[in-house]
Amino acid sequence: MAQRGIQLDSAKFCCSICLDLLKDPVTIPCGHSYCLSCIKRYWDGEEQREIHRCPQCRQTFTPRPVLGKNTMLAEIVEEMKKTGLQAHHLQPHYDAAPLKKHKLVEATVQFQENICSRSRQKIQQRIQDTEKDVKVLQQEVEAINRSADKAVEDSEKIFTELISLIEKRRSDVKQQIRSQQEEEASRAEELQKKLKQEIAELRRKDAELEQLSHTEDHTHFLNNYPSLSRLSESTHSPSNNIRPLSYFEDVTAAVSELREKLQDLLSEEWSKTSLTVTGVDVLLPQPEPKTRAEYLQYSCQITLDPNTANTRLSLSEWNRKATRIGKHQPYCHHPDRFTTWFQVLSREGLTGHCYWEVEWSGPDVSIAVAYKDISRTGQFGSNDKSWALDCYNQFSHNSIKTPTSVPVSSRVAVYLDHRAGILSFYNVSETMTLLHRVQTTFTQPLHAGFRVYGGSAEFCQLK
After folding, report:
1. Which residues contact 165 (CB under 8 A, 6 or more apart)?
2. 98 Cβ contact list (under 8 Å, min separation 6)
3. CB 17 within 8 A of CB 30
4. Which of 188, 207, 224, 372 is the most exposed, having the fewest neighbouring CB atoms within 10 Å of its CB?
5. Which residue has the higher pLDDT, 450 or 186?
6. What is the mean pLDDT of residues 277-281?
7. Which one, of 373, 374, 403, 375, lies nearest residue 390 by Cα?
8. b/e per residue, 277-287, with b = 16+ CB within 10 A?
9. pTM exceeds 0.90 for this model
10. Cβ neighbours of residue 461 closer than 8 Å, sequence gap 6 or more
């Protein structure tokens, strides 16, 4: 009876149209699965209709669903082929000889062991990678503390010489360093904690998969394997984006320079001096760059966040280019995704001094910056949370449109001084030609973005 139950469950891997083992399996919205070629032929025969149906449950679909390969089902079918579990084994044979049933069980067990072994290898590799990340984060925590302690010690020596003039400022800077030390160390420790939790969860899945690979209840196996083998995205991968192991050294250098300029700064410039932590840096008032070479010192690497991309935008392999296409991309549902306009935002939040360049083409492209909490149904430039250069020669913010000073070229530069509230757009050629400048107050980190109604836009690789 148990073997008969296995055969009946295995029949689920047959296409109900051709009655053979699934080839290039696709799952349609009602949940039934077919060979890609079979369901296409079936629906092609209904092409004169506007409504398409499921051959099994007769549920109707308008418009015709886009077919996407069911990769997990395809993997299971391939494993069945490798272990000899062919389509004729998948039909119920109540009169099968005991020997044939024995071979079927052996093939099923081999299939389970193979597929579990692959999943365990992936989990074990993830564990090794995550353990390396935990070690790197521990080194970062130690470096943060050492750097902060040294910065406080050096600042104390310098401020002692100026005690009569800047006693209050000394304590303020000390407090800010300590506050940032706590924030940065807490950030790394929190990530470390999450990664340890992820390791524990991966070890649990590994153990359960090992146990599942030996189960004799094959229906239980088929029901539980998909959830155990599915790996969620890692909480964080700090080894790919670890900050330099120096944090507060520039504080000492900036305070030393401040000592030399104290008499002038105290009366006029002190209010413009702030302690801004990006690395950590103390930023004194600086003139805006004049040449492209000067701007390039602030160049930053920016990538697009696939979770924000409208489904009619196709992103390049390295998530630097967005192209408008005619059909919807099979992106998963995500609350950050733009649903109305063909827009996408960067993964990175931008503060401090930032410079990037964009190559664009097509009839309707906008180059924008926006706060992360912008409405996912709002157009760049039509609200107070976004600023957009429309490449048909106008600038938009809060639905106010301003013509650019000159026509927009195919390569555009963007310069952001977040603290000073400066946002500038330039044509890039042998000289930098200003298109539009914004002077405002930014209250949140900004994200670079594109609106591509027709054509494409790409972040340039800057050296």
Report:
1. 262, 266
2. none
3. no
4. 207
5. 450
6. 42
7. 403
8. beebbbbeeee
9. no
10. 320
Read off the pLDDT band of 436 (50, 70, 90).
Answer: very high
Give the other-Cβ count within 10 Å of 168's Cβ. Answer: 8
β-partners of residue 448 are 369
Q: Please choose, from the candidates 446, 411, 441, 448, the residue with its C-alpha nearest in 3D space to the C-alpha of residue 426.
A: 411
Q: How far apart are CA 184 and CA 190, in angstroms?
A: 10
CA distances from residue 376 to 143, 253, 335, 337 in whole angstroms, order as listed: 39, 43, 8, 6
Residue 12, classed as helix, strand or coil, is helix
Confirm if 413 and 428 have CB atoms less than 8 A apart.
Answer: yes
Q: Give the Cα separation of 295 and 355 in Å (integer).
A: 6
Percent of the chain with pLDDT over 70: 80
What does the angle CA 372 – CA 337 – CA 317 come to, to the nearest 5 degrees? 100
Across-strand partners of 437?
Answer: 424
Mean residue pLDDT across the chain: 81
pLDDT digits (tens, 9 = 90+) for 183-214: 888 888 888 888 998 899 889 888 888 888 88
Beta-carbon count within 10 A of 302 CB: 21
Provide the pLDDT for residue 219: 86
228 compared with 436, residue with greater pLDDT:
436
Q: Are 370 and 460 in contact (CB under 8 A)?
A: no
CA distance 20 to 11: 9
d(CA 78, CA 115): 10
Angle, helices 163-212 vs 249-260, to 10°: value is: 170
Cis omega (within 30 of 0) on the bond before 63?
yes
